[in-house]
Amino acid sequence: MKSLVLLAILAALVVATLCYESHESMESYELNPFINRRNANTFISPQQRWRAKVHERIRERSKPAHELNREACDDYKLCERYAMVYGYNAAYNRYFRQRRGAE
Q1: For residue 96, is it within any domain?
Q2: Distance between CA 28 and CA 7 in Å, rounded?
Q3: Is 18 a domain residue?
Q4: Averaged pLDDT of the chain
């Protein structure tokens, strides 16, 4: 009888442990956690938005050399496959540096 009571208590503890739902798993307790569409862009001023667009255009025009090399390598399948094994720098050197040196 003692073992049956002990087994029941142990089973209850196991069920309580496995079925416990923490409050961390819930997304939010707020009633309305999302911003409506009208107010979605109000936290960024138009001037900051304009500056961000200008900086993005500047970054697109003046990309670092390694990024340009990687984009060139991505357009050529053999270079891309070689890059998966040896890296983009080695792949670019193999497929594109030799052509520049030959010209």
Answers
A1: yes
A2: 38
A3: no
A4: 80
Q: What is the pLDDT of residues 55-90, one digit of tens each?
A: 888 888 888 888 888 988 988 999 999 999 999 999
pLDDT of residue 4 exceeding 60: yes
What does the alpha-carbon distance between residue 12 and residue 15 come to, in Å, rounded to a whole number?
5
Q: And the tokens for 43?
A: 């936290």
**Greatest C-alpha distance within the chain:** 93
Contact present, 92 and 100 (Cβ < 8 Å): no
| End-to-end Cα, the chain, rounded Å | 93
Q: HSE on the CB side for 36, CA within 13 Å?
A: 2
Number of domains into which the chain is organized: 1
71 is in an annotated binding site: yes
**What's at 52, amino acid-wise?**
A
pTM of the full structure: 0.42
The answer on pLDDT for 5 being more than 80 is yes
Q: Is residue 1 part of a domain?
A: no
Asked whether residue 49 is assigned to any structural domain, the reply reads no
